[in-house]
Design a protein that fits this description.
The complex is a heterodimer of chains A (about 150) and B (about 475). With about 150 residues, chain A is α+β, with helices and mostly antiparallel strands. Helices cover about 25% and strands about 45% of the residues of chain A. The two termini of chain B are about 40 Å apart. Classes of the chains: A alpha+beta (about 150), B alpha+beta (about 475). At the A-B interface, helix 2 and strand 6 of A face strand 4, helix 7, helix 9, helix 12 and helix 14 of B.
Chain lengths: ~150, ~475
């Protein structure tokens, strides 16, 4: 298992909650982003003509993950795009005491006729939000407002 | 009675249950849940945890309340009501929700089921074309920052000034479709970027546009119904449920971050990060209130633009102007909002998250044409089971800070709903019952199946029995548009 996610059944009934897990922070961020994308669309039905490079820093890993996931929600509305894939690298700059993210989002403009759209995520919430390390894995629990 | 909590829950009346302050460290007031013996065991564990978390917040007055449609939200439960002292208390984006001024609008017509049934397919197709819905749906207008600032300041009036509505519409909206005190200067460019293309769009999730029928046998209070323009005889009405779209969502996200920092500065702790709050009279509290008012006004404008599109669709299909079809707005009311309102204690900052203002007769805030009967309260049920029009009461003013239910309330998660039913099955079953559904997402349709919700009639009987709103009419769906 490099990265994985599963949706949580009995948390925040009207919304969508998931737990993501990865062998590294990069894997965790990959898994969590894929969970957000899968909530919004079947990514197999989305093309790859749009690309956006992303960069963010944060002294705290939970804050960095929160903003990374929130970027997906923002771009969906502001740019009118949907995502087919992502790649992301998260590293710790110990000297500067900061976590650095470099990522790429791939997708295409929203197309209701062609894409299998699911739920319109309103926001990443802080309800039960948690990022932690367990058994050599990085984990996160996230509730999305639908 | 087996409840989804270990807390002590005392019966006060047949519809009111109280959790005493001794049940959780930090509770400043008791928590009160409105429910019958049928509904209370259906309420999930989140309701009990969250309403008691709210009862711990600084400056809360009387009770933390949860309405009978309550269920697990984030921060506040959905169905939550809480009032805070403006001098000692707080304002919390978590008590309003991300979808600021998510709300309901009801439009009457002179048409009957006999008029509409032969053209229902054409009508639903035209409504689906005119009112964009679904993930990231975009309207026909893209506003620049200056125009969007005007929307924030003017609300529904911005639309009416551009021909997207009738002047009389404004009289029939909560706060005339414009909350005072909106300040666009403290709203981020990101929020505007998310919202500038979404005016006149429904969104997705549980948002919808529904064509409904009012039959004679489902009118419970004919005099009040008549005052609202409801005459029965299989009359057609149109219900809209949506809010401030991406713009409001971003305003809420922006200020939750501001409040997380502000709480440290003001020494406030809360039981759930999503309850982040700031003193109402602090700079951060006032900034959020002004930004929230702007987002609320954008939601009033959104429902106003949709009203125009609905009138256009009816006009196209029936070949006559909307005026000739009697398409008057009955009312428009928010169910995710924070407002300063006057009660026995004086001014209070009333938070409603998934609950509806329900003012009784005589209140000066009500439109003149309804002041003698009370405020129309619009409660949307699941798309399969129908909705209700109710009326506010003096009892609500005394007991619940002039508040009541907003819908049926979920009992099943979205994932479980999708495992239980398929979207195409629901669409066919509803078609067999004479209800045409147009949906952007079939999985979204399954998530909103009637089986995922409480029976709205049970919920309505609770608030009717408690006297905090009274039944006026039941509205039965014949056509539904979902994102």
């Amino acid at each position: 298992m490099a990265s994985d996610f599963h949706f949580l059944e009995h948390v925040a009934l009207a919304d969508a909650a998931f737990e993501a897990v990865g062998d590294s922070p990069s894997d965790l961020f990959t898994a969590a982003a894929r969970a957000v994308i899968e909530t919004m669309v079947n990514p197999v039905t989305v093309g790859s003509v749009w690309k956006r490079d992303m960069g963010r820093d944060d002294p705290e890993l939970p804050g960095l993950l929160f903003d990374w996931l929130s970027d997906l929600v923002f771009l969906k509305d502001a740019e009118g795009v949907m995502f087919s894939d992502i790649s992301v690298s998260v590293t710790e700059d110990r000297a500067m005491r900061v976590w650095r993210l470099h990522g790429t989002l791939i997708g295409e403009p929203l197309d209701q006729d062609r894409q299998e759209l699911r739920s319109d995520v309103k926001a990443v919430t802080k309800h039960l939000y948690k990022v932690w390390q367990e058994d050599n894995h990085w984990k996160a629990r996230v509730v999305l407002d639908i | 009675m087996k409840l989804n909590t270990d807390m002590t829950v005392n019966r006060i009346t047949d519809q009111i249950w109280e959790i005493p302050v001794t049940e959780k460290d930090g509770m400043r007031v008791p928590a009160r849940i409105y429910a019958t013996e049928t509904i209370l065991p259906e309420m999930d564990t989140g309701v009990f945890e969250q309403v008691t978390n709210v009862a711990c917040m600084p400056g809360i007055r009387r009770y933390a309340l949860c309405m009978p449609d309550g269920h697990w939200g984030y921060g506040f439960p959905i169905g939550g009501v809480a009032a805070f002292d403006p001098a000692e208390g707080v304002i919390s984006p978590g008590g309003v929700g991300y979808d600021i001024n998510c709300g309901m609008r009801l439009i009457r017509t002179d048409l009957t089921l006999a008029d509409v049934k032969p053209r229902l397919e054409a009508l639903m197709t035209e409504l689906f074309r005119q009112v964009p819905a679904g993930v990231g749906s975009r309207g026909t207008v893209r506003l620049n920052r200056r125009e969007f600032d005007d929307v924030m300041r003017k609300g529904a009036r911005w639309c009416v000034e551009r021909g997207l509505g009738w002047h009389e519409d404004l009289e029939r909206l909560e706060e005339h479709g414009c909350l005072q005190g909106a300040d666009p200067s403290i709203v981020s460019d990101q929020a505007v970027e998310r919202g500038h293309s979404q005016l006149g769009t429904l969104g997705s999730g549980n948002h919808y546009l529904e064509v409904q029928v009012v039959s004679d046998d489902r009118i419970f209070d004919p005099d009040t119904a008549a005052a609202f323009g409801i005459i029965g005889r299989d009359q057609i009405v149109v219900m809209v449920h949506c809010g401030s779209r991406g713009f409001g969502h971003q305003v809420a996200s922006d200020y939750l971050k501001v409040f997380e920092k502000a709480m440290r500065r003001y020494g406030i702790t809360v039981k759930d990060q999503q309850l982040a709050c700031a003193p109402f009279r602090s700079p951060e509290g006032q900034d959020y209130f002004a930004a929230m008012n702007g987002a609320a006004n954008s939601a009033f404008a959104n429902r106003q633009a949709i009203t125009h599109q609905i009138r256009e669709a009816f006009s196209t299909v029936f070949g006559m102007p909307a005026e000739s079809l009697g398409m008057h707005v009955i009312y428009d009311v928010a169910h995710n909002i924070a407002k300063v309102e006057k009660y026995a204690e004086g001014d209070l900052v009333v938070h409603r998250k998934g609950s509806t203002r329900a003012y009784g007769p005589g209140r000066p805030e009500l439109p003149k044409l309804y002041r003698h009967v009370g405020q129309p309260v619009i409660c949307g049920g699941s798309m399969e089971t129908g909705s209700y029009l109710l009326v506010g009461t003096d009892q609500a003013m005394q007991d619940t800070f002039g508040s009541t239910m907003h819908g049926s309330g979920r009992t099943m998660s979205r994932a479980q709903a999708k495992r239980t039913v398929r979207g195409d099955q629901i669409r066919k079953q509803m078609a067999d019952r004479g209800i045409i559904v147009k949906a952007v997402s079939l999985s979204g349709l399954a998530e909103e199946a009637g089986v995922a919700y409480k029976n709205i009639s049970d919920v309505v009987e609770t608030v009717d029995g408690a006297g905090i709103t009274k039944k006026v009419a039941e509205l039965r769906p014949i056509g539904n548009i979902k994102g």
